[in-house]
Protein 1
Amino acid sequence: MSCVAATPALEGTSGEVRVQGSASFRLAFGSCAHQDKPQPILREVVRQNPHAFIYLGDNIYGDTNDDISVMTAAYEKLASKEEFQMLRKSIPLLQTWDDHDYGANDAGREYPLKEKAKEVFLDFWEVSADDVRRTREGIYYSKVVKSGGKIVQLIVLDTRTFRGAWTKRGQDAKYKHRYKPADGNNILGKEQWKWLEVTLAKPADVHIIASSIQFSGDYHGFEAWANAPDQRAKMADLIEQQTENPVIFISGDVHHGELSMFRGPSKRKIYDLTSSGINQVGTILEPSKSRVGEAFFKPNIGMITIDWRQQEVRFELLGEKGESGLLKTVDLSAL
């Protein structure tokens, strides 16, 4: 399907990637990119020259309940963009999906075309025939990056394939927007949870978890881990059990950029840098006690820089011309 050159290789033995001679690791990411609009911020990604870029979902808007060619056509529009071609030729790419490239607004496991959508997704992103995602349900996976003598584990979740229906908002005025918080919705599904437990236990100096929806943000009525408090608690417990090293979330979906911080059972800080969107930016901002700094309402990309010499991580949001929308530096020892 793609009309551009193959993505620079991220593959290696057992999914390992090596960043040679680097005193830092720089990961860029973004979400919410409508194929009918220009995407000039992708040129800024290339200029920034990160070690990798993660597409966090809504990478196209291809909603359809009965015609997969609608989705295929949306990907073809993305592939035809000069700025996307430049990115794909220059920067190694990883990716997951959110609802609009999964196939329907706020959809979960009930979506009727999910297997066809998965095939289109894997083909467009040139996932190899022997990749595990070709043979198991869902599109979750992980990569190991060796940088400056350290290990960064990139964990890319699938928050769509296995997720049950959200609990819809009732008439109670205290609930906002579409959904209210309720326990009992398995966001990742049994097999992905098992995989995540094993994956988090593997050696890494820093774990970065990519989730299409926000993890650390407060409840705001739209899709988020906060809509399923038991699932967010399960994730926090799993992190406590499986690793003592820093865990960072990255997310998209909400059509603005922000940094949030959630405290786990031991009061451990779990930061979540949200970047949204590449060309889709909204106007709604809910109050949030977990927000760190100000939200950013311009097209944006996220950037996480891990400085091994200084033993710190830098959280950034950058605009189309590289302007700063947020900058926060945290010692790795504080995570």
Note: DSSP finds seven helices and 14 strands in the chain.
Protein 2
Amino acid sequence: MVYSFSNKGGRTSNQDFLFSKSINSNCNLYMVVDGMGGYEFGDIASKLVAENIYTYLSTVKEINEKEIQKAVNKSNLVIKQKSQDFDAKIGATLAGIIVVDNLAYFFWVGDVKIIFIRNKEIFFESHSHTLINQMIENGNVITNLDRYKHIVTRSISGKIKDGIIECYSSNLLKEDLVVIYSDGVSDILDSYQINHVFKSTDSVLGGVNKVETLCRTNAKDNFSMTVIHI
């Protein structure tokens, strides 16, 4: 079962794009793509990225990390061309999951998040490609969190070297939850708070609705989430 929501939040338009589609009879692709803030045509960029990743993956015989990277590279080239057409900087960040039978491939570039919940606990969490995370890894002292937290170090914005994905794979079990969400959600709730919502709610749909309500009340940015309940 798949649940999702997407809203413009405090922005004038929604530049997030949700994608959910079957690649073949036993393979499904789910993505949350976030048109980059500060760039132009974010809504176009996010849709182009999603559609081109899907188009490429629909042609491959076997899904693996190498082919997922090639799909992202293809979308990067499309963004480069469109950026030239528009004479403007455009780009997107994303996270997604490809489910092949009972095997899942998680992949992400930028600050769209994935949490994988099993037995009501966080089994895996993606590590966002942001300047603040890079500074923490380098041991820097951070005195102005707001200044750095939305600066991404990887994105799909026309440069292949900036669009290197991270990938994680796992078998899936019944009742597993995979939660994919844009930074408009993570501005409001961290991963442990999101997990707590699902733990303390009677149903997955109830948890999704509660997260959406909290975001509607507090979000200043576009906010989007897709939840895959195995």
Note: The chain has a mean pLDDT of 91.
Protein 3
Amino acid sequence: MQRLLPRLVLCAALSLVAAPVADAAASTISGAVYQDLNANRVQDSGEAPIANQGIYLLTADGQSQVAYTSSDANGRYGFPAVADGTYRLQYDQASWWGLRHDWVPTTTGSLFPRMTVTVSGSAVADFGWRAINRSTDIYMPISSYTGANGLRVKSYDDVVTAKELYDDLMQGTLVGSEASAATLLFDFSDNTDMVSLSVSGSSGSFSNYSATAQVGYLAWLDGADQMLFHEYGHAWSLYYAYSVQQDETLAAYLNARGVAGNALLDSSHAWNRRELIAEDYRQLFGTPTAQAAAQENRDLPRAADVPGLRDFLTTTFRQPPPGSPAPAPAPDPAPAPAPAPAPAVTIAQLAMSPAPVKTSGTASFSLSGPATVTVSVRDAKGTVVRTLLQGATSQGGTVSSGWDRKNQRGQRVKSGSYTVAVDATDAAGRRVSAVAGFSVV
């Protein structure tokens, strides 16, 4: 779960240029800033103005500042006495920061409060904003889409659709059989980017793998699909680790990456083995935009600079390791099929909230049926920090347990990356587990 992606900066390193001298031929750019409640791009009666919004007038390439102003009490702003030509109008980042989580522009043609204006005499450029419509019910996304490969995508806002997210992910170069075991949730948890998984069995006999990747709306604004490909990289890599390699330690990958045995491995978020492979997936197989983000771990060479790593991930990592037992031949004649067993219990919606944890948090998840559950908090190395529930009996539904940010000895834990882990065993003795990452600050 990468947290260090670069943020989009609306106005950074802008050089100042002299304002043009006013004359009879000077032009004017003006407009209104308002709540466009019906999203019709017109300020209708009853739609409130938004005051004190900083707006830059920049050169057409966006690199140099021509002027700066703020909207008045009536939401009006203006740049008088500007030379004819083409300019970029752009919100001050400080003003945008106060709106962007809950409001989206209606008049700019994008999710961002910026537009290009060509003026000769006068031009009007309004900044209308509408409230973002969201669902907080896991079972009622705003939009859903299931691809032909089985990948399920659900968006919980009306800004970015599930189909748009799916299409973007399909622009990557390595989406395979793991897709049918993956679900992507967009903007369900407030600015939470994480993956939870469920798998049955133990090393050598893992089965029933499924993963749910969550991507937050603000991460989408800050880095477009960089976080999307990072989080899907978790779902992708853990599918092949559990279901194909049958080795959750990622040992073969660590050797291919050249970090096996490194003393720093799992010592921090950037050195966590699961974060490393998710980052490599983003860098090697994401869209150009996804690949553009700097690698989180600056101590290691970029994925593209590691000889053989791309080939390893596209071939060897997706094949059973040498010496794996071959599938048993089908009996002849085939026996009558046995009655289908009852489905194994499943774990969903595992999360630690609030995120990040400061003084305390609550681990919560849902069970599809009765089971005995153990819940623990673990550090970046996978060591149990605190056991929250031990062999507790649940009849299914929502399960939660509080954590006071202390370890087993009652000591307050340090800031860093942690996971909450759930192990559940149903009445038939089938075991499933799920983990979800979170930060402590």
Note: The radius of gyration is 26 Å.
